[in-house]
């Protein structure tokens, strides 16, 4: 279809301009007024310049090459149809639409993406910021954050705690940020892999014991590939800023990206992309927005209480196996949380729950009674646990050691069971401890105190009675075996 326009001057000269499907501009005119040829020349020149300028703008768009980690979903990846998609891809597409620039995406393995940026083969890479990387590359403002996670082979019989990497084979992706995070740790064997899929394959086959990798990309790939013998054991570790990265000589590009990123945030388009790819809806209520955090706390506390009460470590695996089914059940979460609070409140022993900042998060009346604390529960919650320990240390025979031992346990994070504490009033307490890794909140601490004074006294009495019986038996045997034994008759005609 052609587009025709006509221009008629006041004195009757008329020109027709026709733009065909190929974009060429044709014209015709009423030559009855040849004296006005100058009008035609001026108008034709103007239209020719305009058409040439528009075509030149379209054909000379500035192009930036972007290396994409092909298996870093949902941030950036290649779908089964071969399309490059994800949060960062959509973000750059929006910036391209706004600025007129063209971003060409080049999917590749992560180690190759880093080398491509170093060699100048690409202009841009999405990268986790670190001080070491900042010495080599120029970073934009963060557009999101990435946390790390630890995966293990489910058939591996050792403890599933992340601090027990010592002495084991741990896989890391080449050039991954996790190598910088654990650079000072040398108590395990590091095994480098070229891709996340290779790392999970080695983990599934038992060639390595653990795989340290980005949390969301790891979970995404694990769900997609269905590695049967792989499970996540720790998540939400070391959250860090995820940014655009370029070479230091490309400061103008970084400045442009920072400006456009802020524009997208102000317009609300950024939030839509986050909700589309990263499953975060800022409009949700606090409970719905933090449902995973609430689940982590509720299930973690439930696990600890049951483990302390029954010593059933298998319960944790069953609870973790049902976690995904419980995510959407908000009513069940509320009921479970309420039941857990009620259980702790009526637990026969003292329970103290500290958050990652060493503030009292939860405590029951039994613990207040054991330590003769004058504050009620509602006043005690939020207090610094270290200050409370200083206040109650006078109850113990070695108060300073009581405080020092608490700090040792929290620092190491190792579980403690049946540790005895002697009080100045003659009572004896027994203490248990376990650390809790809560998603998005860090390492928290749960303490269990019980009064075993009666049990200790009974043990002492039984020991004394046993010793007394043994001594009397020896005395009788010595008298009976003596050649000069004397038999003494008592009034009731019994003898000894």
Description of the structure:
The protein is built from 19 helices and 20 strands. By secondary structure, it is α+β, with helices and mostly antiparallel strands. The protein has five domains: 55 residues, no CATH class; 62 residues, D-Maltodextrin-Binding Protein, domain 2, CATH 3.40.190; 140 residues, D-Maltodextrin-Binding Protein, domain 2 (3-Layer(aba) Sandwich); 62 residues; 105 residues, PAS domain (Beta-Lactamase). Strands 4, 8, 9, 10, 11, 12, 13, 14 and 15 form a nine-stranded mixed beta sheet that branches. A five-stranded antiparallel beta sheet has the order 17-16-20-19-18, sandwiched between helices. It has a three-stranded antiparallel beta sheet with strand order 1-2-3, with helices on one face. Helix 11 packs parallel to helix 14. The longest helix has 29 residues.
Instruction: Quickly give the CATH architecture of the largest domain.
Output: 3-Layer(aba) Sandwich
Q: Can you count the helices?
A: 19
| Beta-strand content bin | 25-35%
- CATH class label of the largest domain: Alpha Beta
Largest beta sheet, briefly? 9 strands, mixed
CATH topology of the largest domain, what is it called?
Answer: D-Maltodextrin-Binding Protein, domain 2
* Structure classification: alpha+beta
Number of strands: 20
| Distance between the ends | 131 Å
Helix content: 40-55%
What is the alpha-carbon Rg in Å? 37 Å
> Spans of 5+ residues with little confidence (pLDDT < 50)?
1-34, 49-59, 280-293
CATH superfamily grouping of the largest domain: Periplasmic binding protein-like II
| Chain-averaged pLDDT | 81
Which descriptor suits the 3D outline? elongated
**Integer tally of domains:** 5
């Amino acid at each position: 279809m052609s587009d025709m326009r006509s221009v008629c001057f006041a004195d009757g000269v008329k020109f027709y301009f026709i733009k065909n499907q190929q974009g060429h501009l044709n014209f015709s005119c009423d030559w009855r007024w040849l004296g006005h040829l100058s009008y035609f020349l001026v108008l034709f020149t103007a239209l020719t310049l305009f058409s040439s300028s528009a075509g030149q703008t379209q054909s000379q768009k500035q192009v930036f090459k972007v290396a994409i980690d092909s298996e870093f979903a949902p941030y950036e990846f290649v779908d089964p149809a071969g399309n490059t998609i994800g949060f960062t891809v959509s973000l750059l597409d929006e910036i391209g639409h706004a600025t007129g620039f063209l971003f060409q995406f080049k999917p590749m393995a992560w180690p190759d993406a880093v080398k491509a940026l170093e060699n100048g083969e690409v202009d841009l890479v999405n990268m986790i910021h670190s001080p070491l990387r900042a010495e080599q590359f120029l970073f934009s403002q963060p557009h999101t954050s990435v946390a790390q996670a630890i995966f293990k082979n489910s058939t591996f019989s050792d403890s599933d705690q992340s601090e027990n990497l010592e002495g084991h084979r741990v896989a890391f992706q080449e050039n991954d940020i996790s190598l910088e995070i654990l650079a000072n740790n040398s108590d395990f064997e590091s095994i480098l892999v070229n891709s996340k899929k290779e790392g999970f394959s080695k983990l599934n086959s038992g060639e390595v014991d653990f795989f340290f990798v980005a949390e969301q990309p790891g979970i995404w790939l694990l769900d997609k590939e269905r590695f049967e013998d792989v499970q996540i054991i720790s998540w939400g570790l070391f959250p860090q800023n995820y940014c655009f990265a370029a070479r230091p000589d490309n400061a103008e590009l970084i400045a442009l990206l920072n400006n456009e990123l802020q524009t997208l945030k102000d317009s609300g388009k950024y939030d839509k992309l986050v909700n589309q790819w990263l499953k975060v809806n800022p409009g949700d209520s606090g409970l719905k927005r933090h449902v995973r955090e609430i689940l982590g706390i509720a299930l973690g506390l439930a696990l600890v209480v049951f483990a302390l009460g029954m010593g059933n470590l298998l319960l944790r695996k069953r609870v973790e196996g049902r976690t995904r089914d419980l995510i959407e059940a908000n009513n069940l979460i509320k009921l479970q949380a309420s039941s857990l609070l009620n259980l702790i409140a009526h637990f026969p022993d003292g329970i103290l729950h500290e958050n990652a900042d060493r503030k009292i998060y939860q405590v029951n009346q039994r613990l207040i009674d054991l330590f003769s604390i004058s504050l009620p529960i509602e006043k005690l919650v939020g207090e610094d646990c270290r200050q409370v320990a200083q206040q109650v240390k006078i109850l113990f025979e070695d108060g300073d050691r009581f405080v020092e031992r608490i700090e040792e346990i929290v620092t190491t994070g190792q579980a403690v069971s049946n540790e005895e504490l002697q009080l100045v009033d003659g009572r004896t307490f027994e203490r248990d401890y376990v650390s809790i890794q809560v998603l998005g909140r860090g390492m928290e601490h749960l303490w269990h105190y019980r009064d075993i004074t009666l049990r200790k006294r009974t043990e002492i009495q039984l020991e004394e009675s046993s010793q007394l019986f043994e001594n009397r038996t020896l005395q009788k045997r010595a008298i009976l075996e003596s050649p000069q034994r004397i038999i003494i008759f008592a009034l009731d005609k019994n003898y000894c």
